[in-house]
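Posting this for the archive.
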Amino acid sequence: MKTSQRLTNPGTRHRDVIYCTFIQLFPEGNKINLPVKIILAGLHFTKHFATMNWIVLILAGLFEVIFAFCLGKAKVTTGNEMYSWYAGFALALGSSMVLLVKAIQTLPIGTAYAVWTGIGAIGTVLIGIVVFKEPVTFLRLFFISTLIASIVGLKIVSN
C-alpha cells in the first residue's frame, strides 16, 4: 500500500500515519541508526501537533469573543431576537470549550487557559469599544497592551 493510500483510508490509525511520516522523513539508504530515527520522527510529530493546537487555542479564544458579543447583543434586544442571540451564545460557548479541550491535549493547561482567557478578554474589550461604544481611555488601552504582551510572553516561554 502506498503512503498516500494509507493516509487517505478512513480506517487509518495513528501508527500508520506515524509510519508513513517516518518513511517520508528517512528514505531508504539513510545513514542514521534506527533509535535516532524514531526519536527524530517523534519530535517532528510532537512539533506538528503542538503548532496545530496553538491554532486551535486561538480559535477557541475567538469563539469566546463571539459568545461575549452574543451576550452583549442579547442584553439590548427583546423577543425572538434575544433568544436567537442566546442560541448563538450557547453554540459559541460549546465550540469554545470543545476547542479548548482539544488544545490542552498537547499544551500546558496553565498556559493554554491563560492564553484562552486573554484572547477572550482582549477581544471582548475591543468588541465593546467598537460595537457597543464603550469608552476608550489611555489606561484601558495600556492594560490591554500589557495583556497582549503577557500572552505573547507565555507563548514564547512555553516552547
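Residues 51-157 form one domain. Helices lie at 3-8, 14-25, 34-75, 79-103, 109-130, 138-157.
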